[in-house]
Amino acid sequence: MLVNCAAYRHGRKVADVPVNEIHTYVPQDDCFVWVALKDPEPDELDAMQVEFGLHDLAVEDARHGHQRPKLEEYGNTLFAVLHTIEPLENELEVGEIAIFVGPNFVLSVRRNARRGFAEVRTRCENEPALLQCGSAYVLYALMDAVVDRYFPILDALDSEIETIEERIFGEQNTRANVEAVYAVKRKLLTLKHAVSPQMESISKLFGGRVPQSCMGLEDYFRDVYDHLVRMNQSIDSLRDTLTTAISVNLSLVAMQSNEVGKRLAAYAALVAVPTMVAGVYGMNFSNMPELHWVYGYPLVLGIMVVLDCYLFYRFRKAQWL
User: Fold this and answer.
1) CA 321/CA 60 separation, integer angstroms
2) pTM greater than 0.70 (yes/no)
């Protein structure tokens, strides 16, 4: 589906352009065309390939999707793949945006992403001085928007981890806690798979041999790279926190098991001591002292009570009961 197609000259929008008239603007040196597609049909991509002279391999990647975030050069054309991350119920939905950038055109192909980039187009049109830099500035704006959308997700995961930590120390449902920890860990891994490869890709746009179309915008791409580095460090820190949370949860489980074991041992001792006394008293030997004594029975019961009271006192003092 065609979302938008417009031509820009000297940083300002010239007109919305029909697809069949793109070829009249692309050859103009002071003009570039910005086309946005969402989940396009094969014939739509084929038409864009003809209009912009796109490489077969890049078009094939954009057509099939499921690509790792990357940045490739095909002659004068850059081909970038970025992952979009959107929260969906208790999971993170991974989308994809493929961007073709040439000297006089930008083509973005969005797949499996519910949220569009209309605000990026508005932002660029409100900054004509920067939009004069051409199609490379549009590439920067799209990259910056994708990266900025990661931060609220990371903040939400941080809050979720804090909630889990409170539950670990406040509840006894250890299975639910472990399941919650691993659910957050999967989300962090999804975000990690989107962030790390993009760091490698964007680093090609400001260090070393910078593509000709991106000359002059190195500081902007470096800013996006800095955001990704900060985010990558935060993800690693949160993953370490989750690992610690799992260790703490297991330690608490062991402590609870130890407490239960001590309580059971204490109750067993309270039962075992009277049983021992009763066992000795019940042997019924003929010459056993106090066997026929009238006070023998109450004396033995009294000894049992005294011993159990003493044991109960010692166990409470040791916090076993």
Assistant:
1) 70
2) yes
